[in-house]
UniProtKB/TrEMBL annotation:
Pfam families: RibD_C
This protein's name: Dihydrofolate reductase
Ranges of residues in domain Bacterial bifunctional deaminase-reductase C-terminal: 88-175
Species for this entry: Amycolatopsis echigonensis
InterPro entries: DHFR-like_dom_sf, RibDG_C
């Protein structure tokens, strides 16, 4: 099975969005360079960010997100983001009324069920868990192998926390660090 990676862009003070669910400048690094990150031509990053991010994105088989993110993005219009094969949505509610049952989205109750379903779908590829409440729940349950953060030089002061409401200490190994333009990419293995 592929490893489970908690991932997200984050402010220097640990937030993935403001109180109003808006990411502010957290994704500005994705348009601050001159190297196209995907075929759209919209995302352009520095060469170090490209080398780090493209390699990671190419390994992701499934993304796990919470229902809140699913609703905020309007379910990505039924198409998983960034060329990912499947999205597993953690929710206590059914799929939205009128949702296309053939869309590669899977609605499950709880993070343990979500990780199990995602690993089944991903095979030996990476299972990405979105940072925030769902990611924090997966970390607290001992289901996360690696934590990746794209740290952006902004301070929010308050908002949605990267680790959600994790209330216990979790040790991480020393980070791998890549410096991009307007972003610091950090990768930590979770200490077992």
């Amino acid at each position: 099975m592929g490893k489970v990676v908690m991932y997200g862009s984050v402010s220097a003070d640990g937030f993935i969005a403001g109180e109003n669910d808006q990411p502010g400048p957290l994704f500005d690094w994705l348009t601050s360079g001159d190297v196209p990150l995907d075929e759209s031509g919209v995302l352009k990053v520095s060469q170090p960010s490209y080398d780090y991010t493209r390699q990671y994105w190419d390994q992701i088989g499934v993304t796990i997100a919470g229902r809140h993110v699913f609703d905020l993005t309007d379910g990505w219009d039924g198409t998983p983001p960034s060329g990912i094969d499947h999205v597993v949505v953690v929710t206590h509610r059914p799929a939205p009324e009128g949702w296309n049952p053939d869309a590669p989205f899977h609605f499950v109750d709880g993070v343990k069920s979500a990780v199990a379903k995602a690993q089944e779908l991903a095979g030996d590829r990476i299972v990405e868990v979105a940072a925030g409440d769902v990611g924090g729940q997966a970390l607290a349950a001992g289901l996360v192998d690696e934590v990746r953060m794209d740290v952006v030089p902004v301070v929010f002061g308050s908002g949605k926390r990267y680790f959600g409401s994790v209330a216990a200490q979790h040790l991480l190994e020393d980070p791998d660090v890549v410096q991009g333009d307007r972003v610091l990419h950090l990768r930590y293995q979770v200490r077992r």
